[in-house]
Amino acid sequence: MADWQEITGGVTAPKGYRAAGITAGLKPSGLPDLALIVSDVEAIAAGVFTTSQVKAACVDYCRQRLQAKPSARAILCNAGQANAATGSQGVRDANESAELLAKELNISPELILLASTGVIGQRIKMDALRSGIPKLVDSLSETGSDAAAGAIITTDLVTKSIALETTIGDRPVRIGGIAKGSGMIHPNMATMLAFVTCDAAVSPHLWQQMLSRAADKSFNSITVDGDTSTNDSLIALANGQSRTPAITEMGAESEKLEAMLTAVCQHLAKAIARDGEGATCLVEVQVTGTHDDLAARQIAKTIAGSSLVKSAIFGRDPNWGRIAAAAGRAGVPFEQENLQIKLGDFLLLENGQPLQFDRAAASTYLKQAATDYPVVDVVATNNSNDLSGDVQGQAAARLRSNIKTQRLDNPVIIAVSVGNGHGTGKAWGCDLSYDYVKINAEYTT
Amino acid sequence: MADWQEITGGVTAPKGYRAAGITAGLKPSGLPDLALIVSDVEAIAAGVFTTSQVKAACVDYCRQRLQAKPSARAILCNAGQANAATGSQGVRDANESAELLAKELNISPELILLASTGVIGQRIKMDALRSGIPKLVDSLSETGSDAAAGAIITTDLVTKSIALETTIGDRPVRIGGIAKGSGMIHPNMATMLAFVTCDAAVSPHLWQQMLSRAADKSFNSITVDGDTSTNDSLIALANGQSRTPAITEMGAESEKLEAMLTAVCQHLAKAIARDGEGATCLVEVQVTGTHDDLAARQIAKTIAGSSLVKSAIFGRDPNWGRIAAAAGRAGVPFEQENLQIKLGDFLLLENGQPLQFDRAAASTYLKQAATDYPVVDVVATNNSNDLSGDVQGQAAARLRSNIKTQRLDNPVIIAVSVGNGHGTGKAWGCDLSYDYVKINAEYTT
Q1: Each residue of A229-249: pLDDT tens digit?
Q2: What are the phi and psi torsion angles at B290 (to 5°)?
Q3: What is the pLDDT of residue A11?
Q4: Chain A residue nearest residue B53, CA to CA
Q5: What is the C-alpha separation between A198 and A13, in angstroms, rounded?
Q6: Using the beta-carbon criterion (under 8 Å), do A318 and B227 form an inter-chain contact?
Q7: Between residues 78 and 137 of chain A, which touch chain B (CB distance below 8 Å)?
Q8: Measured between CB atoms, does A364 come within 8 Å of chain B?
Q9: CB-based contact (8 Å) between A367 and chain B?
Q10: Is the CB of A444 less than 8 angstroms away from the CB of B319?
Q11: Is the separation of the CB atoms in A29 and A394 below 8 Å?
């Protein structure tokens, strides 16, 4: 099916990109906390940002930059402080960050985009940033993607990275991406950062359209706990260094590029959902039979976001009643006589009525989806007076060594049909475990 | 302020009502499971029901009955089986239930309303119901409210009951109510049943309007886990037995009656929120400064429903960042510079920026709200293969004896202002604890 292949290299897989990730001392833990992606030449830039009324300074900054001119040379990301709810001082800090980096890279500050993640209400530690930026620029490398991916995470247990390659006009074109997530992941761009690089040449308007549609089918279709953050940002650069002809209108080539962009975003989105706080498995909800795709996605997201469904999956309980109830309240009209629910290969409900099924086998099906991650005690001690917001980061770091690979190929699949319409949609989420509560009860502002 | 006083008697406090609750053998546990409320004379009847596309047979039944004629003599409620997703057989069972009771009461089946709560996908145990109904009618009593309140609960740890009295034209008028909740409690009529009786005389249209508005300010303003059920029903009778003049149009008297009706509904709604599965405290969110009341309630509900806010409260963490983030994503535009957040008497955020506050004292404030309920191990054993759905009911029953009274007078109060508008709104919820996950991971379909 897919017209591309996976390659290594993350955001530095496409031509003409370098990246870096260092420890600048923003996180008290001494873990990497400052990341940079640089394009050798000015790249077309597009972005999708949080819809929250409470936005971090970097979000307003990027929106203004991209509105003025949709291009960039660099993305700077700090972890540790969110620089949200920090008022005019936060805005000044964001501007200064861009100016410092611009000077070091010897480019215009207008070509720099910013992202922050960490504790809301805390300013960026500017002293650490000031001394970190020269070191960061010195570390830039054509194999620096993993270092950058490791410096943007907070409570994530694994780094998230992908790169795909296809051909356009017989020449290779690549898209790479890195992301961070964990907690507060919800439709409408949740607490997540994702940075995508591409070496195709594409017109700014088309690139933004592609990215917005890809975001709807990926990051806006995942949910961990229904909360949306102040800092969510998806930024995508396209620098044309593949030397393929510029894509300036819709057609076979733009569709090919958009499909690969969507695949990159979906991989990162699923990785974020799988790594939701306390999650033990990835859940994929597939909905068919609605009037249009939007309605199908709406039902899928409601099911994936239901605390009762998520708790049941954690309990390995094939609880079709909760799935039916979630589908019913999604705000999409359907006849309950047409409702069908499958869990993996198990048909649980047909014509709106429950069927006999092998409950033990269905429970085993749910169990097999949670074979990669250990269920772990993320919080070693109750540090509710620790203001650093870094307790989880430290605990997460201790755990990372236990996790070999994040498997995304064995999700729990819930397939729901609500009628004969042609609409289809998918959403991804995770289960709700004791550890979710533990992590979030003890993580301090 | 309030123009009424609390009295005893629940739904049998108003004149001309009797009630009963018995063990009919619907629940395998042998706990009470069949309840009945009867008005001596034909009463005006109004109802508000689940908006889910997947509805129990009793919900369709009541909607049709009330559409045909807004009056009733009796409300029959069974606990144990939800009779939802049971197809045409479920409809036949509902009709038969009404006919059986009508015969026993010697009235028309058209004057009977029905409600069910329990496991989705299970039919009512009709044999038990058939033999239970004569016994139920024999048990009817003018002091039967508590018995009825005890027979409609499932995982609830306490019964919910209230009665208020005021005067209209120098004569006493009373409104009583009982309710059940716990789990799946959310705006748009969540898994909850509430039955209200009143002895005023009021026109059907006005009574329905009053009830709909009262529901918006009470049951539709609470959230436990964001899930909405197939069976949610609020039914209110007004039988005129107070012999006060009929209220047929808006005015001082209708306002007085509506205010008391709203107070009854709010009491029951708060009791349901406080008793949310695994909850250790009641949370009240007060929002001001919006353009209108609807917007304020929308923000309040979003904050009260945020898993991150709820986890923080369980962790006794004065986490204003999560409150700000939830307010920001509620879908109501505001300037973040105008955002103010108070937790009890502690001002945490002003002009969109965090203030210094006594974190230890604020945490102590959160702790004092959880002094009545024990934090308990609700699920004694993992009975995930128990199909009765009654495991929780048994565990809950064991616990009820430990809980003296449910205090609703010491909620955690979160007060949020977003501007200078005149809109105000409240919502109620509870915290998110380990026990919520435990209960819902192990409760079987």
Answers
A1: 789 999 999 999 999 999 999
A2: -85, 170
A3: 98
A4: A328
A5: 9
A6: no
A7: 82, 84-87, 119-121
A8: no
A9: no
A10: yes
A11: yes
Contact across the interface for A324 and B119, Cβ inside 8 Å: no
Q: How many residues does chain B have?
A: 445
Nearest to A445 among B319, B353, B443 (CB): B319
pLDDT attached to residue A394: 59
Q: What is the mean pLDDT of chain A?
A: 88
Put simply, whether A321 touches B (Cβ < 8 Å) is yes
Report the pLDDT value the prediction gives residue B440, as an integer from 0 to 100. Answer: 65
DSSP H helices in A306-433:
307-314, 320-328, 359-368, 391-400
> What mean pLDDT comes out for the span B21-43?
95
Residue-wise pLDDT tens digits, A203-214: 999 999 999 999
Distance from C-alpha of B7 to C-alpha of B14, rounded to nearest angstrom: 10
Spatial CA neighbour of B15 closest among B195, B206, B240: B240
- List beta partners, residue A163: A176
Which range has highest mean pLDDT (A208-212, A217-221, A315-319)? A208-212
Report, in angstroms and rounded to the nearest whole number, the Rg of chain B calculated over CA atoms.
Answer: 22
C-beta atoms of B434 and A432 within 8 A: no
Which chain B residues have a beta carbon less than 8 Å from that of A443?
312, 315, 317
B167 pLDDT exceeds 60? yes
Q: Is the pLDDT of residue A254 over 90?
A: yes
Residue B3 has which token pair? 């123009």
pLDDT at A182: 64
**Predicted confidence (pLDDT) at residue B370 exceeds the cutoff of 80:** no
In the predicted model, what is the mean pLDDT of residues B86-104?
96
pLDDT-based confidence at B332, cuts 50/70/90? very high
pLDDT at B43 over 90: yes
Token couple for B335: 């300037």
Choosing among B89, B189, B307, which should be mutated to test the A contact, i.e. which has the most A CBs within 10 A?
A: B307
Mean pLDDT computed over A106-125: 93
Contact status of A397 with chain B (Cβ, < 8 Å): no
Whether A191 sits among the annotated catalytic residues: the reply is: yes
Per-residue burial over A20-43, b if 16 or more Cβ lie within 10 Å, else e, is: bbbbbbbbbbebbbbbbbbbeebb
- Mean pLDDT, chain B, as a whole number? 88
Enter the pTM of the model: 0.83
DSSP state of A389: S
Q: Dihedral sign for Cα A156, A330, B93, B212, please.
A: positive
Residues of B in contact with A314 (CB under 8 A): 437, 441
Q: Looking at the complex, does the CB of residue A308 fall below 8 Å from at least one CB of chain B?
A: yes
Q: Which among B119, B226, B363 has CB closest to A307?
A: B226
Residue of B188, B326, B438 with shortest CB distance to A227:
B326
Mean pLDDT of A185-209: 82
What is the separation of C-alpha B371 from the centre of its chain, rounded to a whole number of angstroms? 22
Calpha distance A25→A31 (Å, rounded)? 8
Spatial separation of the C-alpha atoms in residues B283 and A309, rounded to whole Å: 24
Q: Are the Cβ atoms of A225 and B308 closer than 8 angstroms?
A: yes
How far is the C-alpha of B147 from the C-alpha of B392, rounded, in Å? 20
Taking the mean position of all CA atoms in its chain, how far away is CA A377?
Answer: 24
What's the pLDDT score for residue B227?
60
**Count of residues for chain A?**
445
Closest CA to B154 of B258, B28, B270, B62: B28
Question: Which residue type sits at B318?
Answer: P
Q: Which amino acid does the sequence have at A74?
A: A
CA neighbours closer than 13 Å in the CB half-sphere of residue B158: 23
